């Protein structure tokens, strides 16, 4: 059997190719980005399947859904918070009768390495009433992705594949199988199963709820759930996803290995949880993410069984799991470690690249705001969020993709006088245009500063969907007044000039948009094809 | 046999390139390998680490437990000390001597190097000087892999083969520089 060395993300991508997908869509977001990166590369080398970055996760999801509407298989990939953006099509697509398989690969980021929260996507799968598979290894990532398509077509629903950072970004050997061909193009056997008018939607919803027992039966019987009951053990351990790796890493050091249930599929295989519970007095639940299984097990009513986990303090209530945390929860002594006798090391937070042109944009903004009263700077998600840190310390908010513009509008309308929204070109296209339409309609006294670096840089420099030259037409098309629309060059020699422009526009009692243009340095390097011989 | 390596440095220095060189050699030798990497935000000039686990048995955790690493291999001295608690009592720390100062409160470099040298098993490599002498400052990570080759549980020929595989497509000069960098790093390890 052929083997490949693959990241968890890449194993998902190859699994999807071998499951016969026709299309793949995504918006970049750590830790999910490498799935589509792999598929783009695969497309370039092998001519298929179709793969494309999209404006945001919602458009990506809907494009994937269209492929399934045409009877073929598709994958859509995003980070956990991307699913918030795509929640509308995700939840609703559970109600149509899917005849081409759809896999939603969502990479959660427990511990928030590169994210603004650590939400657990398993709750979303539950909310939409769709099956979810959670791989523990790169091999499972490959195998489960393939299987997820069969599950999707069998039950007529989208299937979630839940990943976490440490699996997405870890590479090892994966054994791959024979590729399957694509589905034939075909419309849904019954057209009205895709038209969610209330009358149809009620029928489809009832049908989805009625299918839950079949979906549960599938999960109960799945080979991805492993129950190992050991005689005479008080303690049982439940693991999900990669928590199993940390458990196994430590379990061999235990004198009496506990009984163990590993959960790889959802809905939670209830019968196996009950079988474990009947066998133990206490159960430790290890899951990387929210206490999802733990909370379901606790329920609302008191019970004899003692359940341990994040909610009862055996594990930290937040953050990602690690071998050490699991070791402690199993009651094993910590391994001896060398220490530095209290020597303190300085933190080294990430920062804008040396000579980043938009560091100059922040210098201009700081200069423009100097001496002004009632200032407020909202910002957004991307490299430029690092403008919150010294030496810039220029921005005051970062909440979700596109929030800068809407929040600036609300703050201005609440009474702040000198309000600036800072947003990158990628984020603006992702979800800034609708709020700019709101601000243009109201001519809100605020200034939108678009930092146009012509790339989605933080996630590894993906090319922009639209060229800078077309941003102008979009901004003016939304109704921004041409006399308050200015394009400046984010060049170090133009810092003062740009500061003057910004000052004038911030003082203008209506909406202004300033675009500071200069390409990301990493993108310039990439486009010049300078070999990155020894750079990571 | 198991051998756990924490590789570290600053985003952009080439931590993942070091991991890739060692990982390729491990595959040639038929070892199982798992390599956990940091992508995303930290790669922008922040502290970056990778965990590379080698074994002839099944490797469970993608992360090396604290107190279990056989080697910390660092491109930067402060970053080297940051991961000392990953070392097992018999583990070795190998660090480049060259500080990368991109923070205002960077400590006294000599003090940092002295602390590294005071560890039970450590080695400081003049990586930039050796890379420069080999012909290219960019080859510091190959120098460091050369230094580590004294400790790694694989033949140094496998590592050299890995250098060949990695750099031959980048032209003869680049390959030559990196082979020289590997050899000088190997020689410098004491």
Written description of the protein model:
The complex is a heterodimer of chains A (536) and B (190). Chain A has 536 residues and is an alpha/beta fold. Chain A folds into three domains: 3-177 and 191-221, Thiamin diphosphate (ThDP)-binding fold, Pyr/PP domains (Rossmann fold), CATH 3.40.50.970; 226-329, 3-Layer(aba) Sandwich (Rossmann fold), CATH 3.40.50; 357-524, 3-Layer(aba) Sandwich (Rossmann fold), CATH 3.40.50. Chain A is built from 20 helices and 19 strands. Chain A has helices spanning 8-18, 33-46, 57-69, 80-85, 87-93, 122-128, 138-155, 165-168, 198-221, 243-251, 270-279, 292-298, 323-329, 357-369, 403-414, 425-431, 433-442, 468-477, 495-507, 521-527, and strands spanning 3-7, 21-26, 50-53, 73-79, 102-108, 132-133, 159-164, 170-175, 226-228, 235-240, 259-263, 265-266, 282-286, 306-308, 375-378, 418-424, 446-452, 485-489, 511-517. In chain A, helix 14 crosses helix 19 (495-507). The radius of gyration of chain A is 25 Å and the shape is globular. Chain B has 190 residues and is of the alpha/beta class. Chain B has a single domain (2-188), classed as Pyruvate-ferredoxin Oxidoreductase, domain 3 (3-Layer(aba) Sandwich). In chain B, strands 2-3-1-4-5-6 form a six-stranded mixed β-sheet. Chains A and B meet through strand 8, helix 10 and helix 13 of A and helix 1, strand 2, helix 2, strand 5 and helix 5 of B.
